[in-house]
């Protein structure tokens, strides 16, 4: 089987499972499925989520029943964004203590993801960012986020 692969990806053969797999010679990642072709098909990001009472699940690890309004959630996120942009805080530190997402325990890190794995507004924002760039507030059914692209 001769297929075109993205840069740094090679096909190897697993003797244990007796089948081919894909290996990235730079990141050392391995996967059974072929890696996606093209630029920006996979990103890594961290985020901070503030839910509101109209969120699809208005509860979190830190608050059983979230009662804040959308406007209050937006103001909280804008303040966190300002602190990050001014260098007063890091997204990781703020997410650890304030994010309504379970990723808070990882400093907001969502790991790598591909298109189709996140809610569309979140995906569009994450894939449009440059590595190290912080998003403006992003609205999804979950609440309002700020996103930091990390890879």
In which order are the strands of the major sheet placed? 5-4-7-6
Give helix % range. 10-25%
Main sheet attributes: strand count, strand direction, barrel closure: 4 strands, antiparallel
Question: Treating each run of at least 4 consecutive H or I residues as one helix, how many helices?
Answer: 3
Give the C-alpha Rg: 18 Å
Uncertain spans, ≥5 residues at pLDDT below 50? none
- The secondary-structure element order is EEEEHHEHEE
The secondary-structure class comes to: alpha+beta
What would your notes on this structure say?
With 151 residues, this protein is an alpha+beta fold. It is built from 3 helices and 7 strands, in the order ββββααβαββ. The chain has helices at 70-85, 91-98, 120-128; strands spanning 9-14, 19-24, 30-31, 42-50, 109-114, 138-140, 143-149. The strands form 2 sheets. It has a 4-stranded antiparallel sheet, with helices on both faces. A hairpin with a 4-residue loop joins strand 1 (9-14) and strand 2. It starts with 8 loop residues before the first strand and ends with a strand. The mean pLDDT is 92.
Considering the chains and any ligands shown, give keywords for the structure.
single chain; 151 residues; alpha+beta; three-stranded antiparallel sheet; 26% strand
